[in-house]
Amino acid sequence: ENLPIKFLVTYDSSHYIIDILKELNLLSDFYFIIDEFQSIFLDAFFKSEVEFDFVEYLQDCPNVLYLSATPMLDRYLEKVDTFKNLPFYQIDWSETGVVENIIIQRKFAASLGSECIKIIKQYLEGKFPSTFTKDSKIVFSTEAVFYFNSISDIIRVINKTGLTSDQVNIICANDGVNEDKVKKIGHSIGKIPLKNEKNKMFTFCTKTAYIGSDFYSDNASSYVFADPNIKSLALDISLDLPQIVGRQRNRENPFKNNIVIFYKTKRKDDKDLTEEEFKKTQEERKKLTKDLLDLFKEATKNQKIGYIQKLRDGIKVSKYENDYVSISKKTGEPVYNSFIEIAQERSWEVSQKDYQDKISVTKSLESLTSNISEYQSDLEKEVQDFLDNKFYSTGIFKYKMRMYCEFMDLHQGNKEVSDIIYYKIKDPKYRKYYNFYGTKGCSSLRYEEKNLELGMIDVSKESELSSVVHKKFQVNSRYTLKEIKLVLQDIYRD
Predict the structure, then answer these.
(1) Are 72 and 345 in contact (CB under 8 A)?
(2) Looking at residue 200, what is its pLDDT?
(3) How far apart are CA 491 and CA 50, in angstroms?
(4) The CA-based dihedral angle spanning residues 116, 120, 121, 125, taken in that order and rounded to the nearest 10 degrees
(5) Is the dihedral of CA 477, 480, 484, 487 positive or negative?
(6) For each successive 10 residues of the chain (494 residues), what is the average pLDDT?
(7) Backbone dihedral region of 311: left (phi > 0), alpha (psi from -120 to 50 degrees) or beta?
């Protein structure tokens, strides 16, 4: 607090400050405090040379502190000469202060976009998540922050929901490619609201906002959509998720430590490497890196100039697919960039191990908190409540059938309810009778199973068409729309 001079330094401007302090012989008087230093590893795919240069320049500084609330795994730190011999301190807040518990709800999703659209529709209809404060006041979350690891997914969701620029704030890397994509749907890249500035109902964030973006809403909820099938952009549960939780800085927000994560699991791909194959590939990259650096050492001065240019061009094309050679800004010479090696290893590990199946995702979440539950939408809760308190409260068929009919009539035309009921009630006969008779028909037969089944048999006998359809399509079987169409065409043709 008493320092006469403070600098807020970005990675790519750090060398200017260091050079100035060197020239003034003041370098030893300054402390360089690097907050969220794990982002050096997480962003290595996008700006590895900038971060390598940043750490390299810091070696000239005698007083450097690296800080992180979500430290990297030790085995990665050990691979970087800069970090492996540094003293390491861990502050255990559980003994000295209050640790805020993270509350996670998770849900496997076949389509991340569809889940996001459902939430948006609920908000637009005024169906907001709610909670109680310590003094028993009810608070509604009228704002939502969505974290995606793909700008394309964000654009698809906004397109399908027809959200306007008054409703949406898009936070992503402000580059030409993203700008063009966002402009095509009539929007623009936004900025993070400052304290006391009004927030929009929906904020969409890509990975660029996982670290360092502070939101000060007093009621925003956070939703994460994790797709491990996007190369190098898979959400790292152990590192990214705590960062996302920490984006909501307003302590008055009762939803700040609650997070909902929708996730996919890894698709089985012929191109996916096994652990053994991946390690072999890594060793081949290391060997090629060493060979390239050895060649540089043996080259003449003139050869080195051309060699460096060739390496620069190669980096632009290959994007470190084959080796870990970077060009040092400090020396202008090729160097071994261990950040790339770590980024590739972590990327493979996250996509192949953390998202193998639902169990592996749950294990990763359990490393953060024990407070994990399955996410249910309001409709899912309503269906579950109906099943627990009514449908399964009796073993008598006719009562169950009557309750089923009444519940389905209440939600007539709601496809989501039909889908939920379809997966929740395994026995297909309730759906079969309801679809065949409707509530009036079931009621006229007093909801008796024997009457309902006989009625269907009688109708089948009366109708040749109905009889053939029942023979061609087996109960409890699933058919694609294409298969149904072809079979029906044959039946009608006959």
Answers:
(1) no
(2) 95
(3) 67
(4) 150
(5) negative
(6) 70 82 89 79 68 86 85 74 84 70 90 94 92 86 94 94 95 87 93 89 88 87 90 74 87 92 83 85 92 91 87 75 86 88 83 83 86 87 92 95 95 84 89 91 94 80 75 84 92 86
(7) alpha
Neighbours of 407 (CB within 10 A): 18
Q: What whole-number distance in Å separates Cα of residue 153 and Cα of residue 113?
A: 7
Is residue 174 within 8 Å of residue 151, measured between CB atoms?
no
pLDDT value of position 86: 86
The first and second tokens of residue 125, run together, are 């209809």
Identify the H or E element spanning 314.
Answer: helix 301-318
Measured distance CA(393)–CA(149) in Å, rounded: 43
Nearest Cα to Cα of residue 278 among 346, 356, 205: 346
Query: Parallel, antiparallel, or unpaired for β 221-226 and 202-205?
Result: unpaired
As a whole number of angstroms, the distance between CA 45 and CA 10 comes to: 18
448 within 8 A of 398, measured Cβ to Cβ: yes
- Torsion sign, CA atoms 60, 338, 67, 254: positive
d(CA 315, CA 100): 44
For residue 72, the model assigns a pLDDT of 65
Instruction: Give the ranges where 350-414 is alpha helix by DSSP (H).
Output: 358-366, 378-389, 397-410
Q: How far is CA 452 from CA 110, 396, 433, in A?
A: 36, 15, 7
Other residues' Cβ atoms within 10 Å of the Cβ of residue 52: 26
